[in-house]
Design a protein that fits this description.
The chain is α+β, with helices and mostly antiparallel strands. The chain is 38% helix and 15% strand. The strands form 3 sheets. Strands 12, 13, 14, 15, 16, 17, 18, 19 and 20 form a 9-stranded antiparallel beta sheet that branches. β5 and β6 form a beta hairpin. The protein is globular and about 80 Å long.
Length: 647
């Protein structure tokens, strides 16, 4: 078994916590929220409960019980590293649960290599069996990476199990497979769900170098692109077809349970999961000319990245709302233009997290800061709003107006896909907050944190960041770096920021532009200080006789806890889309469960013909993530407000 749990826990303190190779230790409000989530959710997981289905092999309803363990492992492993540096009791508990979970899953593996809970005759067919094997492979590979970094002698057991599981899938539904069907012909949504197994298949190739896994990945990619009834993830994108319009003619959006069906292409979570795999594949085949010639993929590498970028761009334009969330009933629906309306099942948390992961991958590949802008907006709004204040669970859906409430239970279990998925979202923020990459130290996000990074040549950098951002508009970064020569410090200046001021040791720097990185060229010394001041006005957004407000990356909301009147009372006409609202002011929050509070004097109220009613009204607003976060029915909130019509 290798080292003891206690020895492993202490060894972890020397291992970088995140995929970027950087170390980030969050402080302040976000640090508190993260600590709560690790302790009350990730470390508190009943691992025997979520691995029990693997032992049973009795799933005949087509459910997805076997996804829960793999999702949990995706967050448990990096959070174990994070907790090992200072939270040893939590780390010991989490380490023990990871080991027990892996033991259970490996004990369930059959001689054929299969790991899952479907009986033999239903495997690799309808339902979510292949989807479950995808997450199982991911879980095993996260464990392998952990053990491999620690150089423990039992690392190979997880890798071998993942290989045997992938070999099983290849034998059953790969080229000339026993089942007589291809990957895209199994599962739901024109093959989206099953085809998303591409991501861990590429991971497996990266860890083994075995060509059969790259060949299988290419086979999956062909299935994603070529069959007329398949996912069509490349040609539809390159033809400019919006994600909400990719269903075949005759597909009925109004049919009962239309969003969980065999056919159709508007399911958001699974579609983006496929693009995640395509981008992983793109990175591999574009890494060397030899691979490009050897894999004989029918799709040009540049078409893969173009399709992913065009799809993500369409999502930003047509689907993402002011909270950075999207979808109704888990499907694309041109939601950006409908966000003021009470659509059902808005902003599934699985969609929120998968959107963040897709943006993270695009940021890594393209270096375009607009994808960091998208992560930031989603993180501070849709994501944090979905997380219960104590971090113990995630809402299934988070409406833009209404109540926060618990998600449903799935698959006859006391767990659901969104709560299982939830902790993965925070990783996107942590992974990208700070990077030591391509010779530069890069800040994508701003929060109180101690950060460290190491370059391939061995040079190390460290900075301490002090900030109440985005509650406040300023950031102070102090160097803990010296003796490594000149290292550029790249600062993301958000696109929403009309103006930003940057100073180095009190001296103003020129050339700062929004929507780009600003580079500070400097040979760092201990105590050097970089200061950033963001222009963070409140901006009005109007849509079809409705109005909403944002401040920086944060969507604002009225909340019933303020007790300041009827939230359905209409605004009088006159406020323009994009107008800067000078009548908003940050104020002290009334309670600890509200992060940001603002006082606003606004033209609210009809019957304006009498002098008293024609005056403006002062109300309070808070950040959307705090709105409704008591998770009780008597705490309701609103983000979009009606504007009265005129004749």
């Amino acid at each position: 078994m290798g080292k003891s749990i206690l020895a492993t826990t202490f060894a972890l303190a020397a291992v970088p916590a995140f995929a970027s190779g950087s170390e980030v230790r969050l402080k302040g409000e976000l640090g508190v929220r993260l600590d709560r989530m690790i302790e009350n959710h990730v470390a508190a997981q009943d691992v025997e409960y979520i691995t029990a289905p693997f032992m049973e092999k009795t799933e005949r309803c087509g459910w997805w019980q076997t996804e829960f363990w793999g999702k949990w492992m995706h967050s448990a492993v990096p959070y174990l590293r994070y907790a090992a540096d200072g939270k040893c009791k939590v780390a010991e508990e989490l380490c023990s649960k990871i080991e027990r979970g892996v033991d259970w899953v490996l004990a369930s593996q059959e001689a054929s290599g299969y790991i899952g809970n479907y009986p033999e005759e239903l495997r690799c067919g309808e339902g979510w069996d292949v989807w479950g094997m995808k997450y199982t492979m991911m879980g095993l590979l996260h464990y392998y990476d952990l053990k491999n970094q620690l150089e423990e002698d039992d690392a190979s057991r997880a890798l071998e199990a993942a290989k045997r599981l992938c070999d099983y899938v290849i034998a059953e539904i790969g080229p000339d497979g026993k089942r007589g069907r291809e990957v895209w012909q199994t599962g739901n949504w024109s093959g989206y769900a099953s085809s998303s197994i591409l991501e861990p298949v590429v991971w497996l190739y990266n860890r083994t170098g075995e060509k059969k896994y790259l060949d299988f990945a290419t086979y999956i990619v062909k299935g994603m692109a070529e069959p007329k009834k398949g996912p069509r993830l490349v040609d539809k994108a390159l033809d400019g077809v919006s994600v909400a319009d990719r269903n075949d003619p005759g597909y009925r959006n109004d049919a009962e349970w239309a969003y969980v069906c065999k056919h159709g292409r508007s399911k958001a979570y699974e579609m983006m999961s496929c693009y995640q795999g395509l981008l992983e594949y793109f990175e591999v085949i574009s890494s060397s000319p030899r691979l490009l010639s050897d894999v004989s993929c029918p799709i040009h590498a540049e078409d893969i990245i173009r399709a992913a970028v065009m799809t993500a761009g369409d999502i930003v334009k047509e689907e993402v709302n002011l909270a950075g969330g999207c979808t109704s009933s888990e499907a694309w629906f041109h939601g950006a233009g409908k966000q003021h309306l009470p659509y059902m099942r808005l902003q599934e948390t699985c969609v929120t997290i998968t959107w963040m992961r897709l943006c993270q991958k695009l940021l890594d590949i393209t270096g375009d800061p607009k994808w960091a802008d998208e992560i930031e907006k989603t993180f501070y709004n849709a994501y944090l709003a979905a997380m219960k204040p104590d971090g113990s669970e995630f809402a299934g859906y988070t409406p833009l107006s209404g109540n926060r409430y618990h998600g449903q239970h799935h698959c006859y279990m006391h767990v659901d896909c969104c709560t299982a998925n939830g902790p993965r979202g925070f990783l996107c923020f942590l992974d990208e907050l700070f990077r030591a990459k391509d010779g530069s130290a890069i800040f994508n996000f701003y929060a109180s944190a101690l950060v460290k990074g190491e370059f391939p040549d061995g040079r190390k950098v460290a900075f301490d960041m002090y900030s109440l951002y985005p509650r406040m508009d300023s950031v102070r970064i102090v160097s803990h770096t010296e003796g490594v020569g000149e290292i550029p410090l790249k600062l993301r200046i958000p696109a929403w920021c009309g103006k930003a001021d940057v100073k180095l040791n009190g001296k103003a720097l020129d050339g700062v532009k929004s929507g780009s990185y600003f580079t500070v060229e400097h040979e760092w010394r201990f105590g050097d200080v970089v200061e950033i001041k963001f222009d963070m006005p409140v901006v009005a957004h109007t849509l079809d006789h409705h109005i909403a407000f944002t401040r920086g990356p944060v969507l604002l909301a009225r909340d019933s806890r303020f007790g300041d009147g009827d939230m359905t009372e209409p605004f009088r006409p006159g406020v323009k889309d994009g107008q800067i609202m000078s009548t908003f002011a940050p104020v002290r929050t009334p309670s600890d469960d509200i992060w940001m509070a603002f006082s606003a004097t606004l033209p609210i109220g009809s019957h304006s013909e009498n002098p008293e009613a024609s005056l403006q009204t002062t109300v309070s607003l808070c950040d959307y993530a705090s709105a409704g976060d008591t998770w009780t029915r008597d705490n309701f909130y609103r983000t979009w407000f009606p504007i009265e019509y005129t004749p």
